[in-house]
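Lay summary. Proteins are chains of building blocks that fold into shapes, and those shapes determine what they do. In this project we predict the shape from the chain. Here is one chain we studied, written as its sequence of building blocks.
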Amino acid sequence: VMNVVKITRDLIKAPKVNGGVYTVILDPQLSGIFAHEAFGHLSEADFVYENPQACEMMKLGRRFGPDILDIIDDGSSVGENGFTAYDDEGVKGEKTYLIKNGLLVGRLHSRETAERMEEKPT
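And here is the predicted shape, written in a compact code that computers can read:
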């Protein structure tokens, strides 16, 4: 605990980083958490459906990165984080591409938002 306190105190004094584009290196677990927080929540269809600005920003087909970028929500991988045979609405867990080849191709849906947006529940 004391080590965490020391690190926190040291970081309070750290120089601020200016906004911009930076190259970063993340381990697999941290990159997954980062993608979840930065993009996963943004992909939730209830947020998109009820927000005209988000609807425009999250338009299917929009480019979010280079061709090598894929972001996948995969509830079908047994033993992995996020595995679910069926979710709380009875939807079978499966592999859903949110970004494929750098393009937005999917969203995270409930049955309600999927019906409203005429897309498949995820």
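What the prediction tells us: The chain has a mean pLDDT of 91.
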